[in-house]
Design goal:
The complex is a heterotrimer. Helices cover about 45% and strands about 15% of the residues of chain B. Chain B is an alpha/beta fold. In chain B, helix 3 links the parallel strand 1 and strand 2. Chain C has a six-stranded mixed sheet with strand order 6-7-8-3-9-10, with helices on both faces. Chain C has a five-stranded antiparallel sheet with strand order 13-12-11-14-20. Classes of the chains: A mainly alpha, B alpha/beta, C alpha+beta.
């Protein structure tokens, strides 16, 4: 048992550095003043009508994003998992693309698409209809909800599609043979079985929306309203009111923790969704005449999430004035030249991003693999605690994490602010749950008997780890690396508070440029970021030999 | 492709101009030390392409000394500067924002170096700190800008008050005093002139809110909104030069003048390069570049302005006191958010 | 060739004891099956023997070496054992030859050439010549099983452990592999512990069977001993089909239930004690009540009515309601069926086949 002591100490230290310190500081700062402990900050925060409005806006947005994500994700999951819908590979591919698209890029693209006057869609509408009014105004609450939902619904989709994939057709056919019609089968058998998945998908979507910073900053601020995250961020404007930011972070933290608890309950009971899932064949339900309308519906939604935004980004990257038609006169490569060669912030930001991405992914994947191995093989007592710790950061929204890290590391003994290290710590913490889940699934896929077989034939534990476990887990760990890397290069909500001019990353530069209205360079950097993301995704798919959204097997 | 060649040509032009003059005018003692330091870190609110252009000009004139440009809004610059100092990070050499109040604050906190750039003695009083810590690098005036495709010259608002007309509801765009020093100055000038009621009423017209003072004219040029209710005239001027459908109105009831100071920090890690760079930005040639291609005003008496821009003395200027700006900074941001929502 | 001794073994998971006070001896060259339903502790016992688990109490001895005790466990890799797993545990990233050769790499005395020779040889023994460079994923279930066997035998272990090795095979193949494993055991003579939940498998393969129930050893013996003289109700029921009649000892050699009284194969019952009588269906003789060969009143002769007959191909299964009792007996007889449902019959239960069970389990 003695061997486990260093691991314990290391785990405890990691806990302190990654979680307890920042959260502890948030709690402490939120109740301290020069004259001792106080609840004054909370009183101020919750009595200010502006801040109340921000709270309410967040609740409204998150709720509707959750509903919209279910409304979009559930039918698509059913269509692709269960029916003979044509073009399923394409649709899955596009949903995956929307899953990895940084939401703030989507929001930015939609400014160009659906700004009430200059937005290309509104212009088109006016030309076609001769009307004076705009078709849609993206700078509104519904606009914000729409843009957030089209990049959040994949969470619901994945959850439900994977559940549906576990339910054998027999269960549905059993109902059908008893005389239930197709809709009745769906309503009485399929729906109740996926209900926990739908609910927990809803919660997942709400959580995503709650923690989001970029999209509200791009769409809500011009429309004249705040959400919790943008409000927390603006508390940092000079003169900074860190204690207010801390007090305002607490409700967000509590809401997230509560929702996750509910979701865990739901998933804990999910067992029955997969009953009879083994071995059952799945037969595609024929859609008949509805095949092509259904396909059209899916593609229309994905056009909103992928084709239109990517198209308008490409157009903005190549034109002098993004709102003007792409004529020969308007065509230019100057945005690329400016972004990569004249704008001095780009190169260092690209380097910082890559450095942080590689560093975080390597350390994160390594740590996640170690933790997952220890917990899966129960190598030390208290391994459950380690698993809990690895998953715990999921309750901390990026902005809140950043507030905590900012308070914790702008003072001795650990002065990390102003270095890449503080971003590194933020990213490792933020990505640990994703990395751990991936690594955990990987080791769950490596049957422990494969290791036992090596042991009993004469190989020591380390040798087995090197010759048997490592080669078998390799592709899973590489995928973990890729997941973390993708998460890091798009990170905005924590970076926006923790960066200093010398430690900018690409997402922060994009946000800077956005505040200045530099559409061309934003589009160029956005495309660059997408290229890096998709490059990583392709690598990951190669390694895994499957599309990464699916359940294993 | 003309655009592509504009920048190298400008560099070439300045190099020719500087050929004999620049190195001679720079204090030679600085030069060696500055070269050893190798770079200068510049936190600036000068709009990004202009800032990069000044940096490239300097690097061309003094090979071996890099300029690290960190461009963001005036208020963000102060925020990051103070946060860095709190964490004991001493990174920045030269600070340049459009909020003169910042420099009052920084001076009080003893964070500025006492330094008089070469040649500023000829500048008008409004460009000089009486204690000699900061000097106005450039100036701009806040103007109304409108999209000529949507609004005819006859309809266009001529005064600040005309923007309160309900017919502009949903058609206006404003920048944010919580981001931009130009706008903070603008808001204070108009508050002093008309009171807060003016902004309360303006907010009724539901303006779109952007951040940078350069952005309202970009939004207007794209057609997203028809009229910009503030913003530096120089960004609108540049867009107009590029052929965007935008026109500038210098309101008759007065134009808020924004003088954007620059200073060297007391803790500058590259003090010699900072001095060299500051001197460089005040040379007639660089000041002239700002006037020519950027459409800015400057304090340099010999600078010639484009014929299609009004001279400063032809305008009714509304000026604000930097100390008042510093004191009322909080109030300006808070009330603006109260009226406009974010 | 040493044997294995398990002494007073206890293994707990948290509060739950998976194995409690289990003692067992496997003699040199013997094959002992650990038999029991799932959760009885048989796999846990095997894994303690293999060194994967540390016991809370008790010891594992092989020959004169104590391999496991609560204070010290020799790691699996130094136990000179081999194990065949339920999942086969073939390494998917290695070829058949690499899989089989793996254990030989840790034997210093075996040269590279010798290693290759032994791999070729053992693959021949398990009928897999020519499969050396295949990957496990390219083999059928039965072939994978043979690779797993070859991998374990090639290292010439002192002890061979098998954990439900046949449970993943289909019925025909399973039957074939039982004989194969027995053949290999007889050829190599390795001391073997074999875990299974299938009593037929245990009976075919093993020299002796240890029946485990709820973490304890309930009975150990040859298949014949267990079948003929089960000591507990559990063993009687688990090994083969049987009729169980709960009653009370009326005399040292007699058990009564209601109006029913049976003489049993023992003369040492304590009158008044609860006793269960086990009698195998094939031991009961059945005759139509009207038949001339019908025995009259006599010892262990019962009258009853056939409730149902089932044709099983090689036998007929009768369900007979005993007159004047709630007891229903199952009787196995050779086809064709002697009686039909509803007919009266007499049943003869030889006293020697009526095994009294006094343990409560």
């Amino acid at each position: 048992m003695d061997r486990s002591i260093p691991v314990w100490v290391a785990a405890a230290l990691a806990l302190v550095v990654l979680m307890a310190l920042p959260l502890g500081w948030i709690g402490w700062v939120s109740v301290s003043s020069e004259s001792g402990p106080t609840l004054a900050h909370y009183a101020t925060v919750f009595q200010d009508p502006q801040l109340q409005k921000a709270l309410w806006n967040t609740v409204v947005m998150a709720f509707w994003v959750g509903l919209a994500s279910v409304a979009l994700g559930a039918p698509m999951a059913w269509l692709t998992a269960r029916t003979d819908l044509p073009g399923q590979t394409l649709i899955r591919g596009l949903i995956m693309a929307s899953f990895v698209t940084p939401p703030f890029l989507g929001a930015f693209a939609w400014v160009m698409l659906a700004g009430p006057n200059a937005g290309l869609l509104n212009k088109l509408y006016r030309n076609l209809s001769g009307a004076d009014d705009a078709l849609v105004n993206i700078f509104t609450m519904p606009g914000l909800i729409f843009v957030v939902a089209i990049y959040t619904f994949p969470y619901v989709y994945i959850m439900i599609a994977n559940t549906l994939a576990l339910i054998a057709s027999d269960l549905e056919e059993a109902a059908a043979i008893l005389g239930a019609g197709r809709l009745r089968v769906a309503a009485t058998v399929t729906l109740p079985m996926v209900a926990p998945a739908i609910l927990s998908g809803f919660i997942l979507a709400v959580l995503q929306a709650l923690a989001l910073f970029g999209s509200p900053a791009i769409l809500a601020l011009p429309a004249g309203f705040h959400t919790i995250t943008t409000q927390i961020w603006s508390f940092f404007h000079y003169p900074p009111k860190v204690e207010m930011a801390a007090a305002f972070s607490i409700p967000l933290l509590l809401a997230t923790a509560l929702l996750l608890q509910v979701q865990k309950r739901l998933l804990g009971r999910r067992g029955y969704a997969s009953i009879g899932g083994k071995g059952g064949r799945r037969r595609a339900i024929p859609l008949g005449l509805w095949r092509y309308p259904a396909l059209g519906g899916c593609l229309a939604l994905l056009a909103c999430a992928i084709f239109l935004p990517y198209g308008v980004l490409a157009k903005a990257a190549l034109s002098r004035a993004w709102a003007q038609p792409l004529t020969w006169d308007n065509l230019t490569l100057a945005n690329f030249t400016f972004t990569f060669f004249e704008y001095s912030a780009t190169q260092s930001a690209v380097l910082n991003t890559l450095e942080l991405g590689v560093m975080t992914a390597t350390v994160g994947a390594g740590l996640a693999a170690l933790l997952a191995y220890v917990t899966n093989r129960r190598l030390i007592i208290g391994h459950q605690v380690l698993a809990f710790l690895a998953l715990a950061p999921i309750v901390i929204p990026g902005v809140v994490l950043a507030v905590g890290l900012f308070i914790a590391y702008t003072r001795p003994p650990l002065l990390l602010y102003g270095t890449l290290w503080i971003l590194f710590v933020a990213y490792v913490t933020k990505e640990m749950p994703v990395g751990y889940s991936q690594a955990d699934a990987t080791f769950k896929g490596v049957h422990p008997e494969l290791e036992d077989a090596g042991r009993i034939l004469g190989a020591g534990r380390l040798r087995v780890l090197g010759e048997i476990t490592a080669p078998l887990a390799r592709s899973g760990i590489i995928a973990t690396w890729c997941f973390i890397f993708i998460g890091v290069i798009r990170e905005l909500s924590a970076s926006i508070i923790l960066f200093t001019p010398a430690t900018k990353v690409i997402s922060v530069v994009i946000f800077d440029l956005k505040e200045e209205g530099q559409f061309g360079p934003i589009a160029v950097l956005g495309l660059f970021m997408l290229a890096m993301t998709f490059g990583t995704v392709v690598l990951m798919q190669r390694v895994l030999g499957r599309d990464f959204m699916g359940a294993k097997e | 492709m003309a655009q592509r060649w504009r920048f190298p040509m400008a560099v070439l032009g300045v190099l020719v101009l500087l050929g004999g003059a620049a190195p001679a005018s720079a204090q030679d003692g600085h030069l060696e030390a500055a070269k050893k330091e190798g770079k200068v870190v510049w936190y600036t609110s000068l709009v990004l392409p202009s800032a990069e252009k000044v940096a490239k000009l300097f690097e061309a004139a003094y090979p071996g000394i890099k300029v690290e440009v960190h461009r963001t809004g005036s208020q963000r610059i102060l925020q990051k500067l103070m946060q860095e100092l709190q964490a004991n990070i001493k990174n920045v050499d030269v600070v340049h924002t459009s909020d003169a109040g910042h420099f009052v604050l920084l001076k009080e906190k003893k964070l500025l170096m006492h330094y008089t750039p070469a040649g500023v003695d000829k500048f008008p009083a409004g460009f000089k700190d009486r204690d000699g810590y900061y000097y106005g690098l450039r100036a701009t005036v806040n103007v109304i800008a409108y999209n000529t495709k949507i609004v005819s010259a006859v309809e266009a608002p001529r005064t600040w008050k005309e923007l309160l007309d309900p017919k502009w509801r949903g058609k206006l765009v404003t920048a944010h005093p919580g981001y931009s020093g130009v706008i903070a100055t603008h808001v204070l000038a108009l508050v002093n002139h008309y009171g807060w009621d003016y902004f309360k009423q303006l907010a009724q017209n539901r303006a779109m809110i952007v951040q940078s003072a350069a952005d309202p004219s970009a939004v207007v040029a794209s057609g997203e909104r028809s009229v910009a209710v503030n913003g530096g005239d120089y960004s609108a001027y540049q867009l107009k030069k590029k052929g965007s459908p935008i026109e500038i109105v210098y309101p008759k009831d007065g134009v808020p003048l924004v003088v954007s100071p620059t200073a060297i920090t007391a803790f500058a890690p590259h003090p010699n390069a900072a001095k060299l760079f500051t001197d460089f930005t005040f040379t007639k040639d660089v000041q002239q570049v700002m006037a020519d291609s950027e459409g800015l005003y400057t304090g340099h008496p010999e600078v010639k302005y484009p014929a299609d821009k009004p001279k400063l003395d032809e305008l009714k200027l509304l000026q604000v006191d930097p100390e008042e700006l510093e004191k009322r900074n909080e109030e300006i941001k808070k009330r603006f958010v109260e009226f406009f929502g974010a | 060739m040493p044997g294995v001794i398990v002494k007073e073994l206890t293994k707990r998971y948290g509060e739950v004891a998976a194995v409690e006070g289990l003692s067992l001896e496997v003699k040199p060259r013997e094959l002992v099956a650990l038999l029991g339903p799932s959760g009885c502790g048989k796999t846990t016992t095997l894994r303690v023997v293999a060194g994967f688990l540390r016991p809370e109490a008790g010891e594992i001895w092989v020959g004169d070496r104590c391999l496991s005790s609560p204070s010290a466990v020799v790691p699996p890799e130094r136990r000179r054992m081999a194990m065949i797993f339920q999942s086969y545990a073939l390494w998917p990233h290695m070829t058949v030859a690499q899989n089989v050769a793996y254990g030989l790499r840790f034997k210093q005395e075996v040269s590279r050439a010798e290693r290759e020779r032994r791999v070729r040889e053992i693959l021949k023994v398990v009928h897999l010549e020519g499969f050396e460079s295949r990957y496990p994923g390219e083999l059928s279930g039965g072939q994978q099983q043979r690779v797993a066997v070859a991998r374990s035998l090639v290292v010439e272990p002192e002890i061979l452990l098998l954990d439900e090795p046949l449970s993943n095979l289909d019925a025909n193949l399973r039957e074939e592999m039982r004989f194969e494993i027995r053949r290999l055991h007889e050829a190599f003579g390795i001391t073997t512990l074999y875990v299974t939940h299938d009593q037929a498998e245990a009976m075919v393969i093993s020299d002796r069977i240890a029946v485990l129930y709820r973490g304890r050893l309930v009975q150990i013996g040859t298949a014949h001993q267990l079948f003929e003289q089960p000591r507990t109700r559990f063993v009687a029921d688990f090994i083969g089909k049987t009729n169980l009649i709960d009653g009370v000892a009326a005399a040292p050699d007699r058990v009564a239930r209601g109006g029913l009284s049976l003489r049993v194969a023992s003369a040492s019952l304590k009158p008044g004690a609860a006793v269960t009588v086990s009698i195998r269906p094939h031991e009961i003789a059945l005759a139509p009540a009207s038949s001339p060969r019908t025995p009259g009143e006599g010892v262990n002769v019962l009258r009853g009515t056939v409730q149902r007959t089932s044709y099983l191909g090689d036998a007929i299964d009768y369900q007979v309601q005993v007159d004047g009792s709630d007891v229903v007996l199952r009787v196995a007889g050779p086809p064709p069926a002697a009686v039909r449902a509803g007919q009266e019959v007499t049943l003869t239960l030889p006293a020697a086949a009526c095994v009294p069970l006094t343990d409560s389990d």
